[in-house]
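Hi support team,

I submitted a single chain yesterday and got back a structure, but I'm not sure I'm reading the token output correctly. Could someone confirm the output below corresponds to the sequence I sent? I've pasted both exactly as they appear in my results page.

Thanks,
R.
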Amino acid sequence: DRTVAAAVESGIPVSQIVPVHQTFGGGNWTTNTGGKYVMPTTDQLQTMMDHWDELVPSPEFDFAYAWG
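Hi R., thanks for writing in. Yes, this is the structure output for that exact sequence:
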């Protein structure tokens, strides 16, 4: 939310913002604080997509990334 707000405040129109989704998890991936990356459940993914849709309705496209 704060990064979208910062982008808009700096002059970037919402129509130019691209939602980004992490698409990896499991295995030995860990965060810099020792946490684990996990693949979202179907319900969690839907919640994330719905949240992005509130921030950036009808984006031209979205972006998913994975490591490995």
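A quick pointer for reading it: The mean pLDDT is 89. Let us know if anything else looks off.

Best,
Support desk
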